[in-house]
Design goal:
The chain is an alpha/beta fold. It is 28% helix and 24% strand. The chain contains 11 helices and 20 strands. α2 packs parallel to α3 and α4 crosses α6. The longest helix is centred in the last third of the chain and has 18 residues. The protein starts with a strand and ends with a strand. The protein binds zinc ion (2 copies). One zinc ion (ZN) binds next to loops.
């Protein structure tokens, strides 16, 4: 039998939630405030904690942080009457596995519980006290998914109009993949989340084409002296990384120079193709795109994420290069890849450096990727057209008989990686 700890100051809503769990044969422990909740959690080590966000004395964020520091396998679901993205992000950052908006019904609760506590394929079920060796989950969020140029407007509102930027939270690190125009919104969210606390992050740059760096001058945390950022990437074809990044902020094109930004920024040109960011191991690989462009694979303690924002399929005579790429991507949990063109469009744009739909799907299948995200959507593709390419991609997968999931990257959507799953909510 599994145990849940309910931490909620409102006795009536605590009683109702307790009833839901009891009916499903859970052992229920109750705490009327955050302080009691923390001590009961340490005493009983429940499989699940359901914690209200707004409570006097010790709030839900503090409870999360405290329990997470001491019990890494206990799953924590924050419940709140508020549906602010900032609250959700802060709760996840504090160590929550999920954030659920009230009112609570068993159907939505069960769906969330199944997601955060997937039943193991074999071996013992989740019973008794839990050992504390599971690391907190890895999360990624899409802030910009568009290729070439931002395209705001009503026809792109579903998938989003901002260019490449992805946030990854893993093993205590904040890692940003590319600095496209989506980075502006990410900066606003980070500032709201951290408040006066300093932000420390690493930006990985795939290459310095405009659509991958143009958000950097508008990244709010760069304007705060408390923050520090490492910018990692590779030397361009004709210039160093630092020189290229500084160039888009020269006086003729921007009012402030990169050097004048108050945050501590270190630009580090990578020489090796493998390095680490804290506990996250990073592997880079040169891809088929004009100039110098790399793809990254991040190995986190909850699975790996491969990111190939701009890459053209290798022609038939470059089979060895393709094989190397398949090896680089082999069994990635998530692959985010340039699928800018349909197959027909690609015929007219060979040599432009971008992917075609069937080639990226077959690459994913050959590499046995778990979940494929079509990315770097063409600026001319409206939401309906993106839906259509997703359908075509799924047909190819269906015909292959392989289990890969396919979706289109969507601005604002998040993906969690755990020991048993990688999914979008
Ligand atoms: Zn691009
Ligand atoms: Zn490019």
């Amino acid at each position: 039998m599994s145990t849940v700890l309910l931490i909620e100051d409102d006795a009536e809503s605590r009683r109702m939630t307790a009833e839901l769990f009891s009916r499903e044969d859970w052992t229920v422990i109750e705490a009327g405030d955050g302080e009691a909740g923390i001590s009961l959690a340490l005493e009983h080590r429940p499989q699940l904690v359901l914690c209200d966000l707004l409570m006097p004395r010790v709030n839900g964020f503090q409870v999360c942080r405290s329990i997470r520091q001491q019990l890494q396998r206990t799953k924590i679901i924050i419940v709140s009457g508020r549906d602010y993205g900032v609250d959700r992000a802060s709760a996840i950052e504090a160590g929550a596995d999920e954030y659920l908006v009230k009112p609570i019904f068993w159907e939505n609760l069960r769906e969330v519980i199944e997601r955060v506590m997937p039943a193991p394929a074999d071996g013992p079920g989740i019973t008794g006290r839990l050992p504390d060796f599971m690391p907190p989950s890895t999360r990624l969020k899409f802030w910009g998914v568009r290729g070439s140029i931002p395209v705001p407007g009503s026809s792109t509102v579903g998938y989003g109009g901002n260019t490449s930027c992805i946030e990854v939270r893993a093993d205590g690190e904040i890692i940003i993949l590319d600095a496209g125009s989506g980075m502006r919104e990410l900066g606003i969210a980070l500032e709201a989340e951290f408040g006066t606390r300093p932000i420390k992050l690493t930006l990985l740059i795939s290459h310095t084409h405009w659509d991958h760096i143009q958000g950097l001058p508008f990244f709010l945390p760069a304007y705060n002296g408390n923050n520090s950022m490492r910018l990692l990437g590779y030397r361009g074809a004709d210039e160093g990384l630092a020189a290229i990044l500084a160039r888009q902020m020269e006086p003729s094109v921007f009012p402030l120079s990169l050097r004048a930004l108050p945050s501590t920024i270190s630009i580090e040109e990578q020489k090796e193709m493998a390095f680490s960011i804290g506990k996250v191991r990073v592997q880079a690989c040169f891809v088929h795109h004009p100039g110098i462009c790399v793809g990254y694979r991040l190995y986190t303690s909850n699975g790996s994420i491969a990111y190939l924002p701009d890459s053209e399929p290798y022609p038939a005579h470059a089979a060895a290069e393709r094989a190397k790429l398949v090896e680089f991507l082999h069994r990635a949990d998530v692959l985010i890849i340039d699928a800018q063109y349909t197959d027909d469009e690609y015929q007219k744009k060979v040599g432009w450096g971008h992917g075609s739909l069937s080639s990226v799907v077959s690459l994913g299948l050959d590499a046995e990727v778990r979940k494929l995200f079509l990315f770097h959507h063409d600026p001319g593709r409206d939401d309906r057209a993106v839906d259509e390419i997703v359908e075509s991609a799924r047909m190819i997968v269906l015909e292959s008989g392989k289990p890969m999931e396919v979706d289109a990257a969507r601005e604002g959507s998040e993906v969690w990686l755990g020991a048993h799953l990688a999914r979008t909510p």
